[in-house]
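Pilot study result, target chain (226 residues):
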Amino acid sequence: MLGKSTDGLVSRYINRRVSSRITAFLVKHSTSITPNQLTVLITVIGIIPSLLYASQDPLLAAIAGVIVQLNSILDGVDGEYARATGRTSPYGAFLDAVLDRVVDISILGSIGYALTLTMPYLTPTLYLLSLAAITGAVLVSYVHARGEASLKIHPGKIGVKCWASRDVRLFLVFLFSLAVPVVGWLSLLACLTIIAVTSYVYVFWKLYEMWKLGVGRGGQTSSHLS
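Predicted structure:
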């Protein structure tokens, strides 16, 4: 299986169906590209939407949304390819995680920038909303990373499944971007709001779940985890 047990709903039911075929093609044709090179290439693709959002053109915003979802799909290819070819490495996982955050920040930041230009009367509020969406997205990843490093278990495997994972977040950006030419930039204002709220709710809920289940307390792991 090329997917991961921590995959979100969008990755499991949509993205992996496409990315696995791309990975199979790369493996079959024995390309010389390395997993880390794939990671960098996918990152470059992921940064393109930020330029399109910043243009403030509704049609380009919709196109940006399509590229965002494409990036979300391709984001699974480098890891799948590494596992399929036996070329996984700690540095590869580190590189992928860091560059994913670069893409996330560029996408959410550029959406916030475009909103401040199209809705200047909401500028102070939009600054705070953009900050909340960006920090919330980063915190979700941080909670997962620290959970694995400090508590030896991925928080996404405990209790409520991740409704604020990267695949879900980017899928929301994709859907709401498609609506910009029809309903205007209010669509992406709603998107940032949803991302900010769901991310922070998820982060604090996971802190509660990990505490409630006794993960890491007194060096013991709750029997509820078995």
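One observation from the pilot: DSSP finds nine helices and no strands in the chain. A full batch analysis is planned for the follow-on phase.
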